[in-house]
């Protein structure tokens, strides 16, 4: 079973980025100054291992609101 995740992975965690590119479905990547923002579907065990990179829901909502205001 796949679960949707929103992650912010530091550039120094190349091994994590490699895992995401091989394990994820529907991966969307956005390079930012503070790391790589990833939206993807992952197998539940992989998502659990990468929990420390998860973007809090409040941060996601604030980013969406800012994007809508800028549009």
Percentage beta strand: 35-45%
Helix content: 40-55%
Strand line-up across the major sheet = 1-3-2
Instruction: Output the number of helix runs.
Output: 3
The count of β-strands is 3
> First CA to last CA: what distance?
35 Å
**Overall average residue pLDDT:** 90
**What coarse outline follows from CA principal-axis ratios?**
globular
Order of helices and strands: EHEEHH
Low-confidence stretches: none
Rg, alpha carbons: 12 Å
Overall SS class: alpha+beta
Main beta sheet: strand number and arrangement?
3 strands, antiparallel
Structural summary, described in words:
- By secondary structure, the chain is an alpha+beta fold.
- Helices cover 42% and strands 35% of the residues.
- It has three helices and three strands, in the order βαββαα.
- It has a three-stranded antiparallel sheet.
- The chain is globular.
- The chain starts with a strand and ends with a helix.
- The mean pLDDT is 90.
Brief descriptors of the model:
alpha+beta; 42% helix; globular; 3 helices
Outline of this structure?
This protein is an alpha+beta fold and 71 residues long.
Helix/strand layout:
Layout: E1 2-9, H1 14-23, E2 25-32, E3 35-43, H2 44-49, H3 57-70
Antiparallel strand pairs: 1-3, 2-3
């Amino acid at each position: 079973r796949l679960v949707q995740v929103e992650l912010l992975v530091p550039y120094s965690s190349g091994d994590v980025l490699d895992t995401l590119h091989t394990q994820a479905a529907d991966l969307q990547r956005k390079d930012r100054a503070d790391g790589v923002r990833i939206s993807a579907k992952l197998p539940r065990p992989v998502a659990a291992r990468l929990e420390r990179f998860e973007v809090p829901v409040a941060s996601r909502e604030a980013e969406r609101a800012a994007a809508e205001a800028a549009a």
